[in-house]
Amino acid sequence: MFNGKTIFIAGHARLPQGMAAKSVFETLTITAEIDAKYGVVLEASCTLATEHGREFIGRLLKGTSLNDGVDDAIESIQTYYRGKAANALIAALKDLDLHFQQIKAGGKTKLPS
Q1: What residues pair up with 33 in beta bridges, in sequence order?
Q2: What's the rounded Cα separation, in Å, for the pair 49 and 33?
Q3: Are 58 and 44 a contacting pair, CB within 8 Å?
C-alpha cells in the first residue's frame, strides 16, 4: 500500500547517436522513487537498452540524497559507467534533481513534511 511518503520523479536527456536505446527511445530517462522528507533515492531506473545497464545505474543511484546535491552521484557515473550514455545519464540526473529542487521549493507540488 502506498504511504504517501515517497515521490516519483523523472529526469530526461537526449541520447547520443549510435546507441542501441536510440532505436527505441529518443531520450534517456532516469526515474527515481525518492523519500520525500530526506530526499534519498530509494529506487532508480533508466531507459538504457540492457537490463544489466538499468540495474547498474539503479544500484549506483540508490541511497543518494538529493538534499545533498548530485555531485557525488555524477562522480560515480563518471568513474564507474563507461558507456556512450554517460553524458546523457548525467544530464538526466541533473534534470531529475532540478525537478526535485523545484518541488522542494514549493513549486507545483509541495513535499509532505
Answers
A1: 8, 43
A2: 21
A3: yes
